[in-house]
Specification:
- The protein has 87 residues and is mostly helical.
- It has one domain.
- The strands form two sheets. It has a two-stranded antiparallel sheet with strand order 1-4. It has a two-stranded antiparallel ribbon with strand order 2-3.
- A hairpin with a 2-residue loop joins strand 2 and strand 3.
């Protein structure tokens, strides 16, 4: 769950939240309301967040450590569960 939060949701939500804060203060400064989906840059900010999420997933996928071995699944030995591991 933490990996999904850090690799996908955080890069997606951060540009949207930053733009929302900026748009709020800019609209308040100009005496207007928040820009709608068609008026503001919401579409492009959302696309940038999606591209940032994809780039983050690719980066962590490329940088992940190679296990260099085969996976031994969890099994029962002498009545105890031995967790899975790489050998």
């Amino acid at each position: 769950m933490m990996r999904i939060l850090l690799e996908i949701l955080l890069p997606l939500i951060t540009p949207i939240a930053l733009y929302a804060v900026w748009a709020h203060f800019d609209a308040k400064r100009q005496g207007k309301g928040m820009p709608g989906w068609e008026q503001g840059h919401w579409f492009w900010v959302t696309m940038f967040g999606g591209a940032l999420s994809i780039a983050t997933v690719i980066y962590f996928g490329v940088q992940s450590a190679d296990t260099g071995g085969s996976y031994v699944p969890s099994h029962v030995e002498d009545g105890k569960v031995v967790p899975g591991k790489f050998k």
